[in-house]
Q: What sequence folds into this?
């Protein structure tokens, strides 16, 4: 198992769940303090490098409910799909999913760039690409496994 500082440095001190900065100097007992998420099962020995940095509160909350990964409030998206659920489905079945609708091509392109960047931290082991498709006066944001 990696130590907290090594995981924090590798993850640029950002929580993999909420994507907010983690203060490396905060107490590990603080809600916003750093913790290491061991992955799917803490009872099994995690593979080296699979641990991820999380706020203590995010890591604790994840144990009680499925993680909710928020879309950026700066994006103009309509009917955004839950990111965590989409990632789980794409891991299982591969393929593609429409994850949001946007009113303009510029909005869709911005959402696509943000989503690829966000997933590079949330699900670094899942190679994905985005595609923007026009339809019905809107633009569909499609996420596909690479």
A:
């Amino acid at each position: 198992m990696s130590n907290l500082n090594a995981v924090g440095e590798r993850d640029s001190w950002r929580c993999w769940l909420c994507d907010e900065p983690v203060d490396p100097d905060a107490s590990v007992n603080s809600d916003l303090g750093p913790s290491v998420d061991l992955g799917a099962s803490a009872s099994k020995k995690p593979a080296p490098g699979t641990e991820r940095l999380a706020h203590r509160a995010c890591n604790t909350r994840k144990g009680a409910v499925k993680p909710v990964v928020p879309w950026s409030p700066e994006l103009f998206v309509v009917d955004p799909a839950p990111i965590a659920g989409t990632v789980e489905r794409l891991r299982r079945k591969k393929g593609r999913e429409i994850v949001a609708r946007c009113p303009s091509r510029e909005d869709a392109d911005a959402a696509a760039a943000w989503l690829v960047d966000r997933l590079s931290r949330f699900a670094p082991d899942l190679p994905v690409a985005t595609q923007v498709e026009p339809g019905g006066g809107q633009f569909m944001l499609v996420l596909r496994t690479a």
In short: The radius of gyration is 16 Å. The helical segments are 4-10, 56-64, 83-93, 105-122. DSSP finds four helices and five strands in the chain.
